[in-house]
Amino acid sequence: MTAARLAGVAGALSLVMGLLGCGEDKEGFTSVPGLGGTEFEGPARSDVRIGMKDIEFSPRQVKLARGATVTWTNRDQVAHTVTQGDRAYNEFTSGEIGPGKTYRHTFDEPGEVRYRCTIHANMEGEFRVE
Ligand SMILES: [Cu+2]
How many angstroms is it from 74 CA to the middle of ligand 1? Predict the structure, then answer.
């Protein structure tokens, strides 16, 4: 195999990796094991509570009905945020949620919503709004 052909294979491979969303994607999210699984199964929910515990959102993936309200409760001893969007532009952000505090947001638009904590790099969650 020539060097030029090898370069072509490497290019095609990185393109495929990009399409599959491996590593850090264009919005700056890192891939977290467990995201992209079967947790979206079941009926869409309209009143959802998500815990922030041990530096994780739980559950991390929820299927929402349009107009659903989500309430996050911080059960850790450190502050977290609930922030949608990439690192340059935030669709919405809770600001810091202190220990024991809650944050509530309503989702009116169908589609995929990914959010993260701006303080802890691997703390991510995802909704599918139907
Ligand atoms: Cu956090």
Answer: 9
Domain boundaries, the chain: 25-129
Q: State the Cα–Cα distance between residues 116 and 123, nearest whole angstrom.
A: 6
pTM, entire model: 0.70
Distance from residue 122's CA to the centre of ligand 1 (Å): 9
Q: State in words which class domain 25-129 has.
A: mainly beta
Distance 104 CA to ligand 1 centre (A): 16
pLDDT in tens, 89-123: 668 899 999 999 999 999 999 999 999 999 998 89
